[in-house]
Amino acid sequence: MESSRRRTQCSDNGRRPEHREQLGQWGRAWEVDWFSLICVLGLLCFAPFIVFYFVMACDQYRCAISQPLFELLRGETAPLSIWARTAPFTWSAARMYAAWVAFQAFLCVCVPDVSHKFIPGYVGGVQDGARTPAGLVNKYEVNGLQCWVITHALWAANALYFNWFLPTVIFDNWIPLMWCANILGYAVSTFAFIKAYLFPTNSEDCKFTGNVFYDYMMGIEFNPRLGKWFDFKLFFNGRPGIIAWTLINLSHMAKQQEVHGHVTNSMILVNVLQAIYVLDFFWNEAWYLKTIDICHDHFGWYLGWGDCVWLPYLYTLQGFYLVYHPVQLSQGHALTVLLLGLIGYYVFRSTNHQKDLFRRTEGSCSIWGKRPTYIESSYRSTDGATHRSKLLTSGFWGVARHFNYTGDLMGSLAYCAACGFEHALPYFYIAYMTILLVHRCVRDEHRCSSKYGKDWRRYTDAVPYRLIPWVF
Fold it and tell me: Would you list the domain boundaries of the chain?
């Protein structure tokens, strides 16, 4: 979201039974139930349709997401006519997209980070990732902030001096680029699937379920790599999709200026608040190596296609919507949105900072002016080694077990509220993020319960709420 062929390379064949049980503490499932299979098939079928439907609704129906569906149900419009009116794949968009991905790959792999030598407090360069299920610790070149700065400096230089391309170029080619992004998403997912059979990076960090749909979607390899530094998860999670996020918003803003003759305060708010989120991601990229995406998710269609298509097309819906519906907010509305976004960011960042500080100092720190409290715990990796860990119960982590997600949801709501209340389309993001983060809570806690056992139960007794105190 397999067959037994070539199981000697990537499966648990020959591994002691308890090793398989321990490996189940990380990553996705070993076996697939019917409900999981139905969900996987549903996502494989409908997720690409959702992206197409939302983009088409704005392109042909001015973001009225119910209108095309009602027309189809009433027989007023044929599905093929909607498809025929949609902009097709173009080779100019393909060249543009290929150049973009190649440039980001070059910056990621071939330009070692030097920014950490000059920026106080920033952690970049070669960093260790988390321990994998097989007990390995991968090295990563953390240079996302540097890649973002170089890319945006070139964008600004083009807009101010060189005029190689129009600032609206992304919006003007939005649908043809969508077809290109889909091609890359499916290509990289299929390559990673085949690679796991033929030449896995580490066979001990692979999982086969026997179900081809589940393995294709959720991935087989834990950390597929090409060469020493091209890590599929790090590259596709952070580049090119997230670097493109702020460029896409800038292109939307330029298009609003071109079409309407002015830029609204709602568009500025969306650009600023989402840029804060993106910059925070790259500033803390070394910390990101310890998060669920890198530490637990295998690389399959869920990440490969999702990062190429779902992220850039649905995470930027607010700016896309505001091109068609320029909303000028009242001062009170704009201030409320700004405060909600900033407070959400503060909660999100402070919560993550507390955990990172606690981890780096092994508990020898101060949180909210006091020495932190924690639960001592232990777990075993597949190499049989026992590892000790501490589960923080102070600060925001004593308020709720995933309070960083609460801050993330506050920020997500601010992006949507900046678009006013005329259409439902901009609010897809908060609905999706709520489902995603609640699901992550459940996934993470199931994994932690398997990993830490009775120590996890002691932790949940100490911190009983997941997201919202006294509610959930």
Answer: 1-328, 329-472
- pTM summary value: 0.88
* Token reading at 210: 């026997």
Banded model confidence at residue 3, pLDDT cuts 50, 70, 90? very low
Condensed to tens digits (0 to 9), the pLDDT of residues 438-461 reads 988 888 888 888 888 888 899 999
Angstrom distance (rounded) from CA 150 to CA 427? 32
pLDDT single digits (tens) 154-211: 999 999 999 899 999 999 999 999 999 999 999 999 999 999 999 998 888 888 888 9
Contact partners, residue 418, CB within 8 Å, separation at least 6? 266, 269, 270, 273, 318, 327, 329, 334, 337
Q: What is the 3-state secondary structure (H, E, C) of the chain?
A: CCCCCCHHHHCCCCCCHHHHHHHCCCCCCCCCCHHHHHHHHHHHHHHHHHHHHHHHHHHHHCCCCHHHHHHHHHCCCCHHHHHHHCCCCCHHHHHHHHHHHHHHHHHHHHCCCCHHHCCCCCCCEEEEEEECCCCCEEEEEECHHHHHHHHHHHHHHHHHHHCCCCCCHHHHCHHHHHHHHHHHHHHHHHHHHHHHHHCCCCHHHECCCCCHHHHHHHCCECCCEECCCEEHHHHHHHCCHHHHHHHHHHHHHHHHHHHHCCCCHHHHHHHHHHHHHHHHHHHCHHHHCCCHHHHCCCCCHHHHHHHHHHHHHHCCHHHHHHHHCCCCCCHHHHHHHHHHHHHHHHHHHHHHHHHHHHHHHCCCCCECCECCCEEEEEEECCCCCEEEEEEECCCHHHHCCCHHHHHHHHHHHHHHHCCCCCCCHHHHHHHHHHHHHHHHHHHHHHHHHHHHCHHHHHHHHHCCCCCCCCCC
